[in-house]
Amino acid sequence: METVRLTTAQAIVRFLIAQRIEDTSGGDLPLFPGVYAIFGHGNVTCLGQALQEAAAELPTWRGQNEQGMALAAIGFTKAKLRRQIMVVTSSIGPGATNMVTAAGVAHANRLPVLLLSGETFTSRVPDPVLQQVEHFHDPTLTVNDAFKAVTRYWDRIVRPEQIVHSLPHAVATMLDPASCGPAFLALPQDVQAEAFDFPLRFFERTVHRIARPRADRGQLAHAAAALTAARRPLLIAGGGVRYSGASAELTAFAERHNIPVVETVAGKASLVAAHPLNAGPVGVTGCTSANALAADADVVIAVGTRLQDFTTGSWTIFRNEAVRFVGINVAGFDAIKHRGLAVVGDARETLSELTGMLGDWRGDDDWTLKASNEQAQYQSYIDKIAAPAPDPATPDRAPTYAQVVGVVDRDGRADDYVLTAAGGFPGELLNGWRSKGLDTLDCEYGFSCMGYEISGAWGAKMAIPDREVVVFVGDGSYMMMNSDLYSSVLSGHKLIVIVCDNGGFAVINRLQINQGGVPFNNLIADSRIVEEVRVDFAAHAASMGCRTETVTTVAELEAAFQRARASDRTYVIALQTDAYSWTEGGAFWEVGVPEVSGRPEVVAAYQAMQAGKVDQRVGW
Fold this sequence. Notes:
The chain is an alpha/beta fold. The chain contains 24 helices and 23 strands.
């Protein structure tokens, strides 16, 4: 057998370069198109050197923070619909643990990212090394064990030849639609440096193809039988529709069988907003039209969704006791939720096969007419609250989130890519930003990670450089993580960033007071401070090389947004927004409210929470 002598680090890099992914056009692309890296003593001398030697084939990008780099990798793969995977490397210690939060984001959202962290020495002779955390009872433990809770594949490489087994398994995990998620390899410093005679065939060019598992015929038959008995069927489009590339099949299925479609957070933009069967976003961050349909539906086809509590209103929105669920999902774990008729298979292929079994069957026209009427009323509400004119009753009030989103919605183009996370913007964008094109929204709400917005957008822009990437971020998230504005300027990946300053963590303040609490420690004004100081976000972003401006009105924002479109580098628009005005229309959400309290408002909130739980679906 022909071999080549390489260090472990060199072999890892060479293997990554050899991996390709089948392109939709029939060609292939690099499976790993780049690496985000911050180097330290745990990865600079070996893996860093190997990456430098291969820089022409595997570009390395320098970030500002390890968490930000990993979030950028997630934003990249989301924009690529999981078709390509970025690599992130850190040193040992804080560099590694900085990536744990991002790994949680990838795990919750079922997204692939390859994390390579430095590690202590397997010999243990230099122990304890710089940044090593010692465990008196177990010397094998390091901070890298923290990744076990937030990764789909985890390994510690203690011999060079182990990568011949481990790397293919890591790749297979990340490309499997059912088990997709982050993979992690801990790379001890001495093992990175150690050489081995690797078989040349390990580095052969390999073109991967993402599998499309077909559903069992019996499962399809049961689903078809349930549907043909339905009078008020409802389709829920989840993120799996987008990752499967099943938007065309979803549209055709809905049209042929006359079924309204509602969208989850991850499934938003599976169907263009103006489609007559699109009944809007469903659940807590959803709208009255979608939730009204969910309440009356007799069969719900959940396609590619894990049915998170924000989608189901903590399982209160499905109020028809006779309702049946059909779970179309590559992951059996998700397909069987709430006694669903599981149809385990790829969304695109399953919808095509199921429509063949249904033949000419169609849902009732009265049902789709109801969906249309409900949606028309709701869109009228959105148009009203997003209107640029100030409210005559409150002329001095700052613009609302709905008005800010309305600016981008009115000027929206089919290839604009809008991105946000956590806080108040998910609900505002799901409702107020009407997608004109498919696969045009990234809203990180699986892990609801504040700080994802700017870093994720940097990665998304790398993935789709010819499209406008528009970022909505609140002041709270901006303060948590903003340094990748600098990354975007350095690397030439232009973003449009709208920073809305509502004085702190306003949406969680809303939850606090809505559940009977006293405003406390969320808005800056309600925190333990000496003086309330508002950050000059435009000046801060300008210091990192961005073009910036501060506006105060919706009209000024509209003009600034056009200047941002014309800019050749990242453009940040800052404005103060109302901390108390939010889009209404969602659903019940169960949170813990004290059963005993000296505040009558809390007691009332507890009673209201118990009353809301009456509609909860428990083992139906």
